[in-house]
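Researcher: I need the complex structure. Ligand is 1-O-phosphono-alpha-D-glucopyranose. Inputs:
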Amino acid sequence: MKALIPAAGLGTRFLPVTKSVPKEMLPVVDRPQIQYIVEEGLASGADEVVIINSREKKIIEDYFTENAHLVSHLRAKGKDAYADEVQHVGELPVSYVYQDEPLGLGHAVHCAAEKTGDEPFFVLLGDVIVPGNDMLVRMKEVSDAHNGASVIAVLPVPEDQVSRFGIIAGEAVSDDVWKVESLVEKPAVEDAPSNLAVFGRYLLSPRVMDLLAEVKPGAGGEIQLTDAMDAVLKEEEMYALIIDGDEGFDLGTVDSWLETNNILYQRRFGK
Ligand code: G1P
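Model: Output:
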C-alpha cells in the first residue's frame, strides 16, 4: 500500500522564505516537516511513500537521498548519533511523481495513479503532523471492519470555520465513527451539512483514483479530492473517524508552525 504526500504547492503563506526553500523543508525542531509525514505513512503500514512533487523542489529529493560521504565523515569524527540519523533519512522508501500544473488537490493525487494501481492508498496532507502516528492505523481498523471501505479523518470545527474545509454529511454508527452520506468542499456556513471537517488523512479505495480522472473543477476552480470522494459514494460505502484536535499539530500558518515547534520542542527535550 502506498502513502501519497502532495507537496507541489507554492507555500505562499510562508513567502519570502519559500521563494527558495520549499515549505515542506521548513524545520519542526530539528528535521523538515515532511520527514514527520513520511515517517507517519511508513509507521501506518505503507510500503512506500510517494511524494507528489514539483520539478522546482528537487531539494526535497536531495534530502531523502543517501549521502555516504557525510555519513562516513560523521562516523570518523565519532558522531554516530548524527550519522545514524542521516543514514536513516537516506534509506527511507520514498519515490516521486510530478504535478506540473497547480490544478488542485484532486489533480495532485491523480498524478500518482500509476503508483497506486488497483490498491487502496493513504493520502497525508503536509499541513498537519500527527506525532502519535496512530491515526491512519485506527482508520485502517475501521476500514477492515467495513469490508475495506474508504475512511477519512474528520475534526469537529466551530461553525464559522466550516467554509475552510471539506465537510461531511452522514450519521453516527458509534461514538467516534460516522457513515458518510455526502461531502462538500468549502461550503458556506448556511450550506454546511455538519461541522465535521475533513482533516487531511485519508484511506481511499482505488475507485476514488479512477473517479479523479473524471471530476470537473469545483470549489476555487480546482479539481477537488472531496468531489471524487463524494462521487464514489454512489458506488461504495465510506466512513469517517472523528478525531480530537490535540491529535494533530497545524503547520499551515507562520503562527501555527511556530506554536507547533514550541510544543514539540518541549515534548522532546522537556524544556
Ligand atoms: C484541503 C481539502 C479539504 C480539507 C483540508 C484539510 O483543503 O481540500 O477538504 O478539509 O485540506 O486541511 P486546503 O486546505 O488544501 O484548501
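Model: Summary of the prediction. The chain has a mean pLDDT of 96.
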